[in-house]
Amino acid sequence: MSPTRSRSTGGGRAPTTGSFACSPASTASAAPRPTRSRCPPATPAVDLGCGTGANLRHLRDRVGPTGTVVGVDLTPGMLARAESRVERAGWQNVHLVPG
Question: What are phi and psi of 71, to 5 degrees?
Answer without folding.
Answer: -105, 130
